[in-house]
Amino acid sequence: MATDNVYVLFYLLAFLCIQPNVCDGALTSGCIPAERSALLEFKRGLKDPTNRLSSWVGEDCCKWEGVTCSNHTGHVVKLDLHNPHPFSDFGGEPYNNWTLGGELRPSLLGLKHLKYLDLSMNDFGGINIPEFMGSFHRLQYLNLSRAGLGGLLPHQLGNLSNLQYLDLYNDLDPNFVVPVREFSIGDALWISHLSSLKHLNLKSVNFQNGTHWLEALNMLPSIVEIYLSLCEIGSVPLSLPHVNFTSLSVLDLSDNLIDSTIPSWLSNISGLEHLDLSENDLQGNIPPTFGNLASLKELNLAFNPLQGGIPTSFKNLCKLQNLILPGINISQDLLGLDESFSGCIKMSLESLDLSGTNISGQLPEWLLQLRKLKVLNLGWNLISGPIPLSLGQLASLQELYLGVNQLNETIPESVGRLSQLVTLDLQHNNLEGVMSEAHFGNLTELKYLCLSSNSLALKVESNWLPPFRLESLQMDSCKLGPEFPAWLQSQINIFEIDMSNAGIIDAMPNWFWSLISTAEYVSVSGNQISGHVPNLLHLNNLDWLDLSSNYFEGPLPYFPPGMYFLDLSNNLFSGTISLDIMNMPYLIYLSLSKNNLSGQIPFSVCQLQALQVLDLSKNTLSGVLPNCWNNSSGIVIMDFSSNNISGVIPKSICSMASLQSLHLNNNSLYEELSLSLKDCTKLVILDAGHNDLKGEIPTWIGESLTSLRFLNLRSNMLVGDIPPNLSRLSSLQFLDLADNELSGTIPRSFGNFTAMKVIENFSSSTTDQIRYKEHMFITTKGNTLSYDESLLLMNILDLSDNNLFGGVPEEVTGLFGLFSLNLSGNHFTGEIIENISKLQQLESLDLSRNNFSGTIPSGLVALTYLAHLNLSYNNLSGEIPLGNQLLTFTDPSIYIGNPGLCGFPLNQSCKDSETTQGQSNSDDGDENEMIWFYTSMALGFVVGFWAVWGTLILNKNWNLYYFRFIDNMFDKVYVFTILKVSMIRKRCCSQQE
């Protein structure tokens, strides 16, 4: 009987031991008390702004948020506290609110049976990973990615011999909402102790000082996936004594600094399916031994300066599904792929991406024999010629990217046979012609259509019903008009639509505003669309709206609060700017320029906390500028030009530390330049011309605004001398002080403007803002025009129409990059500087209406770029020099008012000069003539003398005949003379008698 009782007791204990919690010391249902205490202590070290862990109360910790217990033992085996709200660029608040922070207390070690730990997507303030993390010996999953941790990875993590998944990816994107501290790694041999590891993600961990990392990875027998992108890895061994990656399927070494050839040992990883070596500096050819990688499905060698084509051995890659080679410096008929793809790969390839590889030539016909191809991406290349008619043979094609090439001729109708096509991208080519219903006949799956920046026209019947339902339509610069396309009404799922510059001349149909109820991006700019815009508060998804350059009229409508881009410029909107239009907290870009808006600028504009660009120019706004900018810290560009704004420049305007461009020109602002502008230390453009500003030019401009590149104070009432310290502005390339009442001389220090001495293409004047083009009205070459794209090339010095006097300092000729120099309308004296020929880039020179004297320097002939010249109304004299560009100036008015000037193109010839020159030439001619006369006489005498006497001396017979002839002639002359004398005497005697 006692024995039976023992058996009963034994079975009872055995039964109790298999019940949850009993054998482990728990007397009641729920978690282990010691583990509950460990969790509560861990919670005390956390910061929980939204009380995410509010469920962590009561006895049963297994029911707490993020806690999972074993069904058999009751021990906590999983702790998942990752942030459930992913970060997004324009919706960061939920992410911020749900991040945990604080400290990671070692009380967590009380969870001795923990297998799964996830603290990702939180913000622990950049603290190091605690060393105790290496003490969870049963841990199989550890995810600390994007958790706000940093520092050197602790080698104690190598103690986690049961770990199968390790993710320490640290997002270093500066736009990421959590400030990130960089992870780094030293001696990586500790990784080799993770003998059970299958998945390793160390993306963005700094490997610059890391050692033995490849050796350690090669010792992991079970590793399947390795992600080491953005790790600043500088080199990879070209060979390994023994390749042990028997299980490796994925290897990602992209976005590093590897500057060698492709390592040959990669070819020995027989099970490799995904290899990403993109965005390195890999050189040389693709190893032919890659043909041994029979399991390879995706190969990414993008943006590497490789040479040569894909080796013929690639025909062995029968399982290849995705080949990505963008950015490779390869040309000539798609790398000569014909031979490489003539094997079984031609029958298995499903995705081919060679975008951005500088491929040239035409699309080969054989490429279209890849019948299983689903993705073909050859965008961003130099491919020319037509699209082959056989394109329609790719029956399985789902995505076609041929954008940003040099394709020409028409789009073949065979594209309409691609019944599986989802994406068609042919943007930015030279395609032309008409597309009709036939081009879209069987495209029932089409969702993304991009034909922008071509010369295409879409002509379909007015009742055409497309077979597709688009989600994205990009057809800017294609002709869709003149009528508004009625077929668009059927595209009820659209979220992106761009029909800018589409030749539409029509009223906006009412159904369009309902159609875009699901849209995020809408642009119909650059057409001639008319009508009123209704209130659009119902467009909850809309964040980008561009209606610019049309004929929309009426009052400004109300817009949804979630928008971040709004451009209504160059329309006919009228009325005032209501307070409610500023109820858009995420708005980054706002342009209401070139409308008929009136009234005052509402103070609510200062409440747009995210605003970077504000353009209210070219309206009839009045009143004063609001003085409420203290909390508007993000604005970079402000444009209030060409309105009727009066008053002073508000003191708070430079409380915006980010302000770089300020346009106030063509208003009625008065008093002096506000001293508060001294705090705009990042200002690049200050345009305050055509106002009523008074006083002197402040010296603090040259001391504080050191980033200034464009300064326009034209047409104000400024007085006094020009401050010499303006020359401290080393970046200044544009200075316009014209039409003021300035006096004194040009400071010699003006020769120190560094930016005016160089010839270069300047970078953007302000930070790259969304689609904003800087523009200014500039007076040069005798005209005032608005400049935008070419503004950055303008090197201009304009001091015209002031009371400046004295001579022009020689130092000005050192501004070699000067494009335009205007000193007209002053009282300058002396001669025009001869060294003005040093200004080789000068296109416009105006020295008119001064007191310059002397001659026009001949050095002007050397200014070969000169297109505009005005020297009128001075005291210049002498002949106008000719040559090069000066011969093209046929308008005599550019020299008028200089009575002493003569020569082309004036009617006044230089007579005195001609007479003097003629006399000089005559005297010179006479003198030369006499010299030649006497020289020829001497030569003639010598020649004649020796011709006679030399002959007589040398020939005796001639000598005898000659003297006989002379004697005979002498006798005859003597007889004739005697007879004549005798006859004369007889006559004289007879007359006397």
From TrEMBL:
<keyword id="KW-0433">Leucine-rich repeat</keyword>
<keyword id="KW-1133">Transmembrane helix</keyword>
<dbReference type="Pfam" id="PF13855">
    <property type="entry name" value="LRR_8"/>
</dbReference>
<dbReference type="InterPro" id="IPR003591">
    <property type="entry name" value="Leu-rich_rpt_typical-subtyp"/>
</dbReference>
<dbReference type="Pfam" id="PF23598">
    <property type="entry name" value="LRR_14"/>
</dbReference>
<dbReference type="InterPro" id="IPR046956">
    <property type="entry name" value="RLP23-like"/>
</dbReference>
<feature type="domain" description="Leucine-rich repeat-containing N-terminal plant-type">
    <location>
        <begin position="34"/>
        <end position="70"/>
    </location>
</feature>
<keyword id="KW-0677">Repeat</keyword>
<dbReference type="InterPro" id="IPR001611">
    <property type="entry name" value="Leu-rich_rpt"/>
</dbReference>
<protein>
    <recommendedName>
        <fullName>Leucine-rich repeat-containing N-terminal plant-type domain-containing protein</fullName>
    </recommendedName>
</protein>
<dbReference type="Pfam" id="PF13516">
    <property type="entry name" value="LRR_6"/>
</dbReference>
<dbReference type="Pfam" id="PF00560">
    <property type="entry name" value="LRR_1"/>
</dbReference>
<dbReference type="GO" id="GO:0005886">
    <property type="term" value="C:plasma membrane"/>
</dbReference>
<dbReference type="InterPro" id="IPR013210">
    <property type="entry name" value="LRR_N_plant-typ"/>
</dbReference>
<dbReference type="InterPro" id="IPR032675">
    <property type="entry name" value="LRR_dom_sf"/>
</dbReference>
<keyword id="KW-0812">Transmembrane</keyword>
<feature type="transmembrane region" description="Helical">
    <location>
        <begin position="931"/>
        <end position="954"/>
    </location>
</feature>
<dbReference type="Pfam" id="PF08263">
    <property type="entry name" value="LRRNT_2"/>
</dbReference>
<dbReference type="InterPro" id="IPR055414">
    <property type="entry name" value="LRR_R13L4/SHOC2-like"/>
</dbReference>
<keyword id="KW-0325">Glycoprotein</keyword>
<keyword id="KW-0675">Receptor</keyword>
<keyword id="KW-1003">Cell membrane</keyword>
<keyword id="KW-0472">Membrane</keyword>
<comment type="similarity">
    <text>Belongs to the RLP family.</text>
</comment>
<feature type="signal peptide">
    <location>
        <begin position="1"/>
        <end position="25"/>
    </location>
</feature>
<feature type="domain" description="Disease resistance R13L4/SHOC-2-like LRR">
    <location>
        <begin position="348"/>
        <end position="490"/>
    </location>
</feature>
<keyword id="KW-0732">Signal</keyword>
